[in-house]
Amino acid sequence: MHFTSHAALALVAANGAHAQLNQLAVAAGLKYFGSATDNPELDDTAYVAILSDANEFGQITPGNSQKWDTIEPSNGTFSFTKGDVIADLAKKNSQVLRCHNLVWYNQLPSWVSSGSWTNETLTQVLEAHIAGEVEHYKGQCYAWDVVNEAISDNGDGSFRDNVFYKTIGEYYLPIAFAAAAAADPDAKLYYNDYSIEFSGAKTTAALGIVDLIQGAGVKIDGVGLQGHFIVGSTPSAKDLAGVLEQYTAKGVEVAYTELDVRHSSVPADDAAVQQQATDYANVVNACLQVEGCVGVTVWDFYDKYSWVPSTFSGAGEACLYDENLSKKPAWTAVSSALAAAGTGGVASSSAVSSVAAVATSKSASVVASGSAAQAVASSSAPSTAPAAAVTQVSPTSSVEAAAPTSTGKVCTKRTKTVYVTASV
Description:
Layout: H1 6-15, H2 21-27, E1 32-37, H3 45-51, E2 59-62, H4 68-71, H5 81-92, E3 96-104, H6 110-113, H7 119-136, E4 143-148, H8 163-168, H9 172-183, E5 188-193, H10 201-215, E6 222-225, E7 228-230, H11 237-248, E8 253-262, H12 270-289, E9 293-298, H13 329-342, H14 349-368, E10 409-410, E11 418-419
Parallel strand pairs: 1-2, 1-9, 2-3, 3-4, 4-5, 5-6, 6-8, 7-8, 8-9
Antiparallel strand pairs: 10-11
Helix pairs in contact: 1-2, 2-13, 7-9, 11-12, 12-13, 12-14, 13-14
Organism: Phomopsis amygdali (Fusicoccum amygdali)
Main location: secreted
Catalytic activity: Endohydrolysis of (1->4)-beta-D-xylosidic linkages in xylans
């Protein structure tokens, strides 16, 4: 349970219903409530006005502009222009910057993904890329998602069969974390993945990755749980908190890093809208219940810029703000959960449902009226290295082109490459 200061309680009392999400989150003891964004969206002035309000969003994540294909499109040639735009925006607004990401099997330039590598040469490239990018942003990033989505969707908790694993083996993870720690010792270093929010093989594997990195004597500060949920299939706050505590028991912090809750079909009816509000509140309440959970980031806040509709046919309306930039009942439920925690209480599921129902009714009225609104050996793993709780498998064919399902997830968030996730 997070603890709040008298000043924080006074803030909630003074602002009441007008308090905004980040204000409420900080009052409740979190470090931030934030949003991802992407460069094309920054031409939308109405959107940017909300994104830039640090009372609403106290943290920003660049959705794509710090990924390898953007940052180092050719070997040794770095381009930070797009990433700098978002980093500068966060600095201007005094917002926390979560940097995303350094090593991922997707959105790699072809010179990396299709190169002819040895263990030694790819390790050198990996370390050079991380050093170049992290040193550029040194002192700006609260946290880095160092390795993203290293676990396969095979259902057995095995490592994803990417170029790094095939060439270096599982020790590419501690190598990456060691390189990031050397480049910016003050940044928090995270492992980030999806379908690790609830019990299952991927969660066991993610816990094993923490063990692997710590066992190698390398710094890992946190685990990012992406939190791409489906309305009506989101676990309870109790179950979510129980999984968070499995991570924090290993001495790392946790955060929800890419939260959204999508409707499987749209337009959603009132019951589904209320359920979405309850689901969002459950996730936020889970974070609030666990002392080591530092914050919540939504994977953009505006339905217009959500990755969901272009990925899941017929699905959508996953964000806190609708297509008119109006707050949804989900926003109201989240704010109520944060406000309750900030004043020492917890919003019950029935209270959240009641709030959502009222908000749904008000939302319908608005629509009707027409309103718009190098610590690790890089050549081979030592024989004494601890075994990770991740099954090592022989290289197999890639699953990157697997067809989407109702519980699938797109790696790039805004591109078409799809892979399959475990069901929630």
